[in-house]
Amino acid sequence: MKLRPTIAAAVCTFTLSPALAFAQDQPWLKDRRYTEGIGIRAGDLELHPGVAAEFGYDSNFFRRSEDDVIDSLDRGPVGSMRLRITPSFSLSTLSRQRLEVTPDAPPPDVEFRGGIAATYEEFFPVSGTETGQERLSDQRNIGGLLDASLTILPRRPWSVVLDGSLGRTIASSDLGISNQSFRRIHANAGAELVWTPGGGLLDWRLGYRFLGTFFEVDEFSGLTNLHHSIRTRGRWRFLPRTALIYDASLGFVDYPNPTSQLSSHPLRAQIGINGLVTPSFGLLAMAGWGASFYTAEGQVDAVNDFDSVIGQLELKWFLTPNPSTDPEAATLALSSLSAGFTRDFHDSYLWTYYERNRGYLKLTYFFGGRFLLIADGGVAAIVYPGAPETPSLVAEPSWTDVRIDASLFGEYRITDALGINSTLRYGNNVSSTALTARGVDGNVENHLGWQQFEAYLGVRWFM
Question: Which superkingdom, per the lineage (predicted)?
């Protein structure tokens, strides 16, 4: 039986994070330390053009369970060869490396950085049902990201930071219950006032941020949401290598065209320390409280709210000792190994929220200016408070999934502007839960467990 789009939308889960799927898939694109080379100087600006191509295999783009039945002609995972072509361009005011030629010069009045990138994706199905392969071929599309940031009076006692981005995401459902990707536009804009008195021992910030997620397909318009937040954060360096840090935010999440989604006012407050125990060891420890504050608006008698401890603990070993007294001043040349744990909650498109408890390991290794290795992996307990009875879903009590993720990215830089790379990625949602959706021809079970393996070879030119 084929799921109606509105039913599929009701059981799709995404975080409200503005991070774009194509950026997450390509490690070198989401972190400018890996993206950019030496650049081209044009007066007081640096230009960084680049282009990349990748070709590889994706075992389960739709993230389906082996037991999933989409309709009488389509069931189970669909494997595919996958081509991605990504041109990119960024420009900025002169970097500190270039400004170090005149170290006594005062800081500039403004610092600017902007970039644009697009990723064209093509699928060549190799396994699965014929109908499933046709559906996967239809997913060819273009995602992209346009972003910019401006700092007024940087490294002064008072400064202002403005930033914004606009992106398009082409990605599958995180729960693997649909036969298509969910095209979404992400809008992100923020402003922050920064106060750094004296010698910079105190850093206090107050800001506002807007996040908007807009679904292109009319059937999923009920998932479109607007997220406004007010945030204050900062640090006080009470030792040369150690700082007290704090972070608090209040959000206002609204669904303009709601179906079963509820508006909320998420509140988070954390305090902790960030420091270098030695030049080779760093410690980050934060703890606080989070609460979701969902607004039922008469739809139901009781609403599941998150109201518990949140935080992060991370130990980092710098394989190359950090010469700076600032634990956050790590550069690409500082190879490191991190181990940590995070606990937080996220807004869910399946009723209210989900809780995420994840332990992780990450290795970043840059050798001889030529070889870059990034290994990242983790195991998370994803806790859902349950799903209520709706016209499209049968009620489901609370359940917990185990999410396993691992990725390995390696790049050898033949020259300062040309590199060949390889990416391996594995994901597994270990779940015995099956959500029961009411279909046109009867109830349909959507199994939440899935596995996905990806492997790519690529080449990229960057300046």
Answer: Bacteria
